[in-house]
Amino acid sequence: MFEILRRDGMARIGLLDTASGKLETPALLPVINPKLNTVTPQELYHDFGFRGLITNSYIIRNNEDLRQRAQSQGLHAMLDFPGVIMTDSGTFQSHMYGEVEVSNEEIIEFQKSIGTDIGTVLDIFAEPYWTREQTESSVHTTLERTQKAAGMKGDMMLAGVVQGSVYSDLREHCARSMATMAVDVHPIGGVVPLMEQYRYEELVDVIMASKKGLSPDRPVHLFGAGHPMLLALATLLGCDLFDSASYAKFARDDRMMFIDGTHRLADMQSLYCQCPACIGHDLASLRALDDRTRMVTIAKHNLYEIKNEMELVKRAILEGRLWELAETRCRSHPSLLSALRRLRVHQEHLEHYEPLSRDGAIFYTGSETRNRPAFYRYHRRMMETYVPVSEKVMLFPEGGKPYSRHYAEAFARARSRGYQPVVASPFGPVPAELDEVYPLAQSLMPTQNDMETESFIQESVQAFLDRFRFREVAHFDGDIEAGDERSDCDLQRAVAVARYQFGPEAAEALFREPVELVMSRNTGKIRNVISDGEHVLSMRAADGLYTLRVEGARRVLPALPSPRMRVIVHDDAAPYNMEGKNVFNRFVVSGDHGLHPMDEVMVVDGNDRLLATGRAVLTLEEMLSFQKGIAVKIRDGVGRPE
């Protein structure tokens, strides 16, 4: 069973429950060749902290001594490894050397017999150069074998490999078919040639197509991916498990892994590395080691580089900063940068998993930052939900944040002359009423824009003007004469944010006259919205968005058709949710498929009776898939009926 503990978009920190204990993800499983112990499994567990590894059941089966030991002692005792062990089936050997002399049924039974925790189907490795017809046939065979293996696996967890070469539709078809089978882990296979040839842009499409079809309650394993430079990007796209034999293979060729690439020892001009394997060495002393000692030292260095990056990726997930880390890492190689730019094609899918807001600011690292789903979401919602408060608009250049503070006097003068202030920003046009909404005020931009960003600003402003057809367009030139028109800019902000966050119908239901805004004494910002005497909304200072109060939910519920903004729970859970207890995944029946993590939601029973309000932790698809974990963090329950 798999459970999500924390998430950052599609990336997640989770727990995979296996027969040998829990494995925290994202995790890298070092590959152990049972014939060659460059670094022993005991060292991997105790010295490096790896709690899982992967070895090859086909190699063990074909070696008489290894086979007898594995079947008599068990795989864990043979390898002397107390953690989780996954076994490959021989598919990669078929890719490297041709057909293997074992059937799918035989290798599944063998993996069961040696006590592997996660066994793998003997799938067909679909090469990137294969025709569509060849690939379709191989996918069909892989699916047949996976279905057969699922019926044979017994207590062993099963890895069903998603194949499909570079054909995105075949990858998605394979993934959707496997999602219906009794499979526990989903490796994405057939990608090693793409990585070896630095075809990372295609790798992005392969991962995204696979993720679209897979069930979210199963970890995704990117087969053969273990270089530290790739881990942040792959985790960002929702991969949970990785494996690497390259730490040892590279060491045999005197190649050292670093976060910016792989470097040959013979070509390096200096060595400054503080990993435990390298401390005390310079280039001369490392080169002077005997072949075996040098190989082991470099292999350990490579493992430390991988482990350190994996831990940094986890930290970035916890801090909500994985995007920035991935963007930085992808600038280490042009092919990775192409992969980063490819994310623009997948913005809509990525946005579905993007939280409503984050604790930290967005750091602009380059034009590729604008491909982030937060940019896509803001521009789409603004264009769909914003209602201008005037037929006249005045455009302002990017300034300090929030814009309403930086341009306080200028905005006031513009309003006094009947103009709607709008800032032309790297996010696109920002009406003054929305300037504190995440991520607008919670972002750090360079003072000098690159040419691509300047072009985007011009195009998005023009689209904004075309969309709303203002009667008059003016440009701020540093000086505005005051006029005599009056406007309630606080109320305009309160309504605009509600429309942006909840949609026009909900906003109309929430703002019923008379409306009173409770302002913070310290900041002068909106704190609470009192409508017709009822406290319906509270505005969060951190992200400029609302929390929905119970009285507000009572108004929104009849205004929006079910299941909009709803999470529908089983009647058995209703009394607990009414008391303010969190909603757990296993009790979710249905809801709004458009929900994002951190969205404000109404929790209702099967009769659409309001039980509570809170914030979604997962998307609805995830809530319905997982059997463990919290679906909605309840803020206010309506209380049990008298």
Key descriptive features of the protein:
six-stranded parallel β-sheet; Rossmann fold; 4 domains; single chain; TIM Barrel; alpha/beta; 642 residues; Nuclear Transport Factor 2, Chain: A; six-stranded mixed β-sheet; globular
What do these coordinates show?
- The protein folds into four domains: 2-242, TIM Barrel; 362-487, 3-Layer(aba) Sandwich (Rossmann fold); 488-560, Roll (Nuclear Transport Factor 2, Chain: A), CATH 3.10.450; 561-642, Archaeosine Trna-guanine Transglycosylase, Chain: A, domain 4 (Roll).
- The strands form eight sheets. Strands 6-5-4-11-10-9 form a six-stranded parallel β-sheet. A six-stranded mixed β-sheet has the order 25-29-28-27-24-26.
- The chain has 642 residues and is α/β, with parallel strands linked by helices.
- The two termini are 39 Å apart.
- It has 26 helices and 29 strands.
- Strand 10, helix 11 (228-236) and strand 11 form a beta-alpha-beta unit.
